[in-house]
Amino acid sequence: MQQLTRAEEEIMQKLWVLEKAHVKQVLELMPEPKPAYNTVSTIIRILEKKGVVGHEVTGKSHLYFPLLKKEEYKKQSLKQLIHGYFEGSFSKMASFFAKEEDLSTEEVDELLSHLKNNIKEKK
């Protein structure tokens, strides 16, 4: 899967929320200052070429929908982050965030609880 640009990710975030939408509906969810209609339309067509967005024709317009599931993209992006910045080590990443975010004891305990639950589910 190709990595998406920041602008592409922003459009995908809107499509994941909307599930199916016209360009105008995507544009309505964009923060101020809103990009031009043509900019959003162009990015959506690029996403189609990348194979992560599809469309169906509705009258004279197109209704766009994500082909890529948010969970799939999240998983792939996180793997790339861990590989690129933490030598492929989840524990190095967790340690980095624990230090940088100055996690409280309660937050560390919650993280450990999530990890233990995930290990139990895998068994």
From TrEMBL:
**Which UniProt keyword terms apply here?**
DNA-binding, Transcription, Transcription regulation
A single GO molecular function, which one? DNA binding
Instruction: List this protein's GO terms for biological process.
Output: negative regulation of DNA-templated transcription
Q: Tell me where on the tree of life, at the top rank, the source sits.
A: Bacteria
Q: Which family does it belong to?
A: Belongs to the BlaI transcriptional regulatory family.
Name of the protein: BlaI/MecI/CopY family transcriptional regulator
